[in-house]
């Protein structure tokens, strides 16, 4: 099935490229921020169990307990860091974007691995709405990695400012955060990307419609270049939602 985008770009909707990580209740689920794995279990009322295989229900009827920030691919809005409530469901109103995928090796700075402005600026050209960053090395265990207390790579403040000034509205990364794991709550990259100067009193030019998607996985066989991104979320009135970013070759 072919679709025409902006009257001149053609994509094949029958060939989606899924860069999300599925959420499971197994030890294979990735975890960040010091929490346990998700819980997916049937509802129980007395001796009734919401599970067909148990022989006491005609339907499977599960409760799911998870944290969008710590349990897999998710998309967040500036409400993640503000005093006032902002919802991803209200912030993200368009779902198809012109996107570029680039691969970056974070730079060793002291004990940290940092994505710098220089590493991003050399890979960008043209006008894009969404930037997808795959970091190397790109081991498949990113899909099940336990990130807590591992000091994963992160973005410098200058890199986040450059992305914002490049008019990129949507940033997608294969890391648990754009900021350093233990940063004393500074959140320099988050604030720079969303142009949030004060988390208590939001400035008028803060980027209400910009989003950050974390904990994606981009397989090695997916080539760097230009794509159409379909950024799918669940309709949660929350600062973040589990998400399913899909790429289409142009």
Automatic annotation (TrEMBL):
GO biological process, one term: L-tryptophan catabolic process to kynurenine
Keyword line: Hydrolase
Name of the protein in its database record: Metal-dependent hydrolase
Origin: domain of life: Bacteria
A GO term, aspect molecular function: arylformamidase activity
Membrane-crossing residue ranges in chain numbering: none
Pfam families cross-referenced by the UniProt entry: Cyclase
Species in which this protein is naturally found: Flavobacterium araucananum
InterPro entries documented for this protein: KFase/CYL, KFase_sf
